[in-house]
Amino acid sequence: MLEESTGKVAIIGAGFVGTSTAFALIFSGVVGEIVLVDINKAKAEGEALDLSHAATLIRPVKIRAGEPRDCAGSRVIIFTAGANQRPGETRLDLVHRNAAIVREALPEILEHCPQAVILMVTNPVDVLTYVAWKVSGLPPSRVLGSGTVLDSARFRHLLSLKLGIDPRNIHGYVIGEHGDTEVLLFSLTNIAGIGLDEFPLPETLQDRDLFKVEISHQVREAAYEIIRRKGYTSYGVALALTRITEAILHNEKRVLTVSSVIKDLYGLQEEVAVSLPCIIGREGRLGVLPLPLAPGERLALQHSADTLRRVIEELKL
Ligand code: NAD
Questions:
Q1: C-beta 172 within 6 A of ligand 1
Q2: What is the pTM (predicted TM-score) of this model?
Q3: Does the active-site annotation cover 178?
Q4: Which CATH number fits domain 149-315: 1.10.101.10, 3.30.160.270, 3.30.420.40, 3.90.110.10?
Q5: Are strands 190-191 and 170-171 parallel, antiparallel or unpaired?
Q6: In this predicted model, what pLDDT tens digit does every residue of 256-308 receive, in sequence order?
Q7: Does the C-beta of 275 come closer than 6 Å to ligand 1?
Q8: DSSP state of 4
Q9: If you write DSSP's letter for every residue of 250-267 in order, what string do you get?
C-alpha cells in the first residue's frame, strides 16, 4: 500500500538523465510520486515499470508514465527533454533544437502544475533556463537550471583527490556558464577553513599556478571526457538534481550554484541566466549570496555572461 506522497515531481524526458534522476530520487526518500513524460510513450512506460519494481525494494514511491495533465500537483518540474551533445559538440551547439522543445513542451506541463518550481537540465542549460523563464512568465526565483552544481562537485572531487582530503571538508564553487566559460573560484576555496592559497600542497604539486590551470582544465573537460567514452553523462547530474530537488521539497535553504535569471548583480548589467551561489528553498531561489570575487574572477564571470547573452540574443525571444 502506497503512503500519501511527501512530494510529487514531474520529470520531462525519460532518457539517460531523466531516468537516472528518477532512480536517484527513489533513494533520496523525499519524493512520494514521480511522473515521467516523454514523446516516446513506450519508453516512458517501460522506464516507469522498471523503476516501480526497483522502488518496491527500497521504499514506496509511486512512479508512472503520463501525459502533461498527470503532472498536476507536482512541486518540481525537472525538464530533461531534448538532444544531448554528440562527441565534439559543445553545449551551446544544441541551442536551436532544444529551445524549440522547451517552447513547445513546457507551457502545457506548466498549465497543469502552475505552482511548481521549474528545474531545467536540457543543454545549454543556462540559455534554456532563460527561455523557460520567458516562456513561463514566472518570477525568476521559480525557474532554476541545474547550472554549475555538478561542476562545483567535480571541482571539489578533483581537489579532494589531489590534496587527499575528504570533499566534505572542501568548500569551493564554480559559477558562470555550465560550459566552457565557467569560472572556478579559487580565491574563495577553503579546506577546513584554510584558504587554498595557504593550504600546504603535497610535494608533487608545488607550482600553485600550474595546479590551478590543470584543475580548471579538468573540471571544464569532465563532461567531454565522459561523453567521448560512454556517449552521455547521467549519474553526476542525477545526484545534483536530487540535491536541488531535496533543497526545494524540504525548504532547506541550502546554498547551491544553480542557474537563474539575474540582472544588476555581480556587476552584470544585462539580463542573463547564469550560475551563482543561491539559497534554495520551497519557492525556488530565496536569495543570491554576494561573494567577494577577486578582480580576475569578476572579469571571467562577465565574459561568461557575455557569451551566454550573445546566444540568447541569437534566439530573438
Ligand atoms: P536522451 O536522448 O537520453 O533523452 C532525452 C529524452 O527527451 C528522449 O527520451 C526523448 O524522447 C525526449 N524528448 C524529446 N523531445 C521531447 C518532448 N518534446 N517532450 C517530451 N520528451 C521529449 O538525452 P539525455 O542524455 O537524457 O540528455 C537530456 C538533456 O540533458 C540533453 O540536452 C543533455 O545535454 C542534458 N544534460 C544536461 C546536464 C546538465 O548538467 N545540465 C548534464 C547531462 C545532460
A1: no
A2: 0.96
A3: yes
A4: 3.90.110.10
A5: antiparallel
A6: 999 999 999 999 999 999 999 999 999 999 999 999 999 999 999 999 999 99
A7: no
A8: P
A9: TT--EEE--EEEESSBTT
